[in-house]
Amino acid sequence: MNEERKPSECPAPAADAAEAKTGMPDLLTVSPSPHARRGVTTSHLMRDVMIALVPATVWGVYLFGVRAALVVLVSILSCVAFELLTEIILKRTVTIADCSAALTGLLLGLNLSASVPFYVPVIGSAFAIIVVKQLFGGIGKNIMNPALAARVFLVLTWTNGMTAFPAAYDRSFDAVSSATPLAALKVGNLPAESLLDLFLGRQGGSIGEISALMLLIGGVYLLARRVITWHIPAAYLGTVAILSFLFPAAGVDRLPYMVASLCSGGLVLGAFFMATDYVTSPVTKVGRLIYGLGCGLITVFIRRFGGYSEGVSFAILIMNALVWYLDMLTKPRVYGTERRKKKAKEGGAKQ
Amino acid sequence: MKKFTFRGGTHLHEHKDTAQKSTERLPEPQTVSIPLSQHIGVHAKPVVGKGDYVKVGQVIGTVETGLGCPVHASVSGVVQEIVTRYNAVGTPIQNIIIENDGNHEMFEGIKPWSKPLDETTAEEVISLVREAGISGLGGATFPTYAKLQSAIGKADRVIVNCAECEPYITANHRLLLERGDTVISGMEVVMRALNIPEGILAVEDNKMDAVAHLQSRLEKRHQLGRKDDIRICVMKTKYPQGDERQLVYALTGKEIPAGKLPADVGCLILNAETTAAISRAFWRGLPLVSRIVTVAGDCVKEPKNVRAPLGASCRDLIAFCGGLTKVPKKMISGGPMMGYAQWDPDAPIAKTTSAVLLFSEEYDRINTLHTACIHCGMCVSHCPMHLMPNYLVQHAKARNYEQAQKLNVMSCVECGTCSYNCPAGVEIVQYIRVAKNAIRNAAKKN
Question: Where are the alpha helices (DSSP H) in B194-313?
């Protein structure tokens, strides 16, 4: 023990011999409880999400060729680079090791067409990291999902390139067009692809959104690792499924229409990987269900009645803005406090 | 078998390394330093002076009025001096230092209670428990006699808390295996005296050997014609199952209203070792002068359960466990979730010291990683009180205590489940403590 730190009226410390024997340090660290941690950190969680996205990424690269891999890579690297730069300039702690910027880059890349010029992911990354993330205060402070906000920014500023996709197995981009399954659904037709093709991902679209199967594998991994809970994906996909089953387009069978709605566009990617982004989703279970429900409703409305054929990005961004209210609305009842109904009754009696 | 549990909470890394090792008695220490306050309430006043010869079980400090109970000598020997030392939380406390003569001479005044149990009144048992200096040995630090007093006429159920949900600690587990009968007879004393019809031994399912042992003792007891009013409830191993609020909910489905005691919902909760101490005080007249301490952690060579006289130094216990293999960074009194980090390696074992844990820099590294909250909601889904710790931290950081109070910050039991699960390493409990203190201080001013 350090003599100076010890109150003067305390007895002298034990003999040095005992000190040497027990190997006690000069000073012990005093800190508040708890003194134990699970050991799962933010970077572990972010890494798990990236691992869960591997099947979908590999499938995209298989379908659209090496260029798809390059788009994703450029996106990841520029996100990390912008995060590093902004943090140095703003004199913040550098947080690129937590993998959150890399994950944003991966998600942004997966949301792009494989045929985009390379400056598109760079501009998108700049918007995602600098404007949406760092200017709001860095990790944990952003009010919108950076990758999705960047995607919407790109769709608004560079509409043609963002809505034209190569067809499946088109690795040289001969037939880049906007005739995706979603576009067919938009005009009230079933897509040309078979439902199995849609589910497996033999369709045109963004690099990472095309294979429902691969995304489901990743989603199950996230659920098994308890990185996400089932509430948001279940509520989101469930809402879209029920609505498209109940209200199919005129002259189209219900079941195929429902399956096609679920398996085309960015729905599965959005439901498992974008809507579940911690920072921009509610923390309560009921809140998550309502949030998923809202995402589903808005997605279906935009797809059916909106100007765009895809509504996932807008739906999630709109619900992002409501997260705080959803959390406050769905506060769990604290242990030992009265149940709401009872409280209202008693309050009424008093008046 | 039905397993009882509660909503929320988390399964911790258990580290119950000492569960299969018998309790060993600490060799007589050279000196003991007995604090005159070892629980909530009034500090005792010394009734012996320097140079007096005291025997084991002799009263050396008394409390005349207010909440508190007497303090007894844990060894026989000469009082060396009476000094003021700081305890783990920084309160200056008088300590009586006794030089041990090693003879373990018992005080003549120690004799079993004179009347049979059936003729003993509640008041008599309560005064006996007070005179034996028994306070909660689970770390709650509440004088047991006061707890019994508050339960008269209210409690219709005694729950003996053998959950032991903190990692590392196995002191209660060993007690149940080695002294199961003593715990059961302690329950019997309380139940007869306070006229309580039902007794529950609440054990987590990571101690099934203790459950089997207790079951066989209860059957034996039943065969001998005793009343069959004690049963065992097995609970899922989940932290903080040993918290009285979660215990009551798991076993009865009732919630203790905020600011109320278990007695208000008809439950009297006693720690297993406290119950054994009540049995010893009644049947043998022994005051509380020793306790079982789990000595463990990654720095300890041979982790053990040690029965140590109160006032023995932590250093003595560590030496008895083969010393240290690594340089410790922290020494924790109690469990890693709710225990106090000690600054003094010579700190005495008090009635509240259920464990002495030594952790190295390596073990502690994960505790020093602090990043920004990512709103993951782990704290919310695991909170046993169903609070929203992430928002409480936000309000505490902004010193917006009114908002924190609206989110029931005062209901927090500081169990640490939120901080344990936090991937960002936010010191959630500490922010909540700051908010709670500020709110308490503001209330005092008004």
Answer: 208-223, 244-252, 272-283
Listed residue (A247, A249, A9) closest to B82, CA to CA: A9
Amino acid B212 reads: A
Using a CB–CB cutoff of 8 Å, tell me whether B372 touches chain A. yes
Distance from CA of B221 to the nearest CA of A (A): 37
Strand partners, B72: B59
Task: State the pLDDT at residue A344.
Answer: 46
pTM for this structure? 0.90
Contacting residues of B for A94, CB less than 8 Å apart: none
Q: How far apart are CA B308 and CA A315, in angstroms?
A: 64
Q: And the tokens for B383?
A: 């909170």
- List Cα–Cα distances, B122 to B127, B149, B153, in angstroms: 9, 8, 10
- Distance, C-alpha A4 to centroid of its chain: 52
Nearest Cβ partner for A140 among B97, B331, B375:
B375
Please state the ipTM of this predicted complex. Answer: 0.89
Per CATH, which fold does A42-329 belong to? Ammonium transporter fold (1.10.3430)
* Model pLDDT for residues B276-333, shown as the tens digit of each residue: 999 999 999 999 999 999 999 999 999 999 999 999 999 999 999 999 998 999 999 9
Q: What is the CATH number of domain B117-283?
A: 3.40.50.11540
Touching A: B residues 329-348, CB under 8 Å: 329-332, 336-346
Element (H, E) at A71: helix A66-89
Closest CA to A161 of A149, A176, A181: A176
pLDDT in tens, A300-341: 999 999 888 889 999 999 999 999 999 999 999 999 987 765
On the 0-12 / 13-18 / 19+ scale of CB atoms within 10 A, A337 is middle
Q: How many beta-carbon pairs below 8 A join chains A and B?
A: 207
The C-alpha atoms of residue B120 and residue B194 are separated, in whole angstroms, by: 10
Question: How far lies A41's CA from each of B66, B381, B423, in Å?
Answer: 48, 17, 4
Cβ contact A285–B407 (<8 Å) = no
H helix intervals, B162-226: 171-193, 208-223
B386, B8 in Cβ contact below 8 A?
Answer: yes
Query: In this structure, what DSSP letter does residue B102 have?
Result: S
CB B167, CB A36: distance < 8 Å: yes
Of B338, B373, B385, which has the smallest distance from its Cβ to A33's Cβ? B338
Domain boundaries, chain B: 117-283, 370-445
pLDDT tens figures, A151-176: 999 999 998 888 888 888 878 777 77
Q: b/e string for A204-220 if b means 16 or more Cβ within 10 A?
A: bbbbbbbbbbbbbebbe
Contacts of A45 in chain B (CB under 8 A): 374, 376, 423
With an 8 Å Cβ cutoff, are B315 and A11 in contact? no
Backbone φ and ψ of B441, nearest 5°: -65, -40
Q: Name chain B contacts of A229, Cβ cutoff 8 Å.
A: 381
Residues 258-277, chain B, touching A (beta carbon < 8 A): 258-260
- The amino acid at residue A138 is G
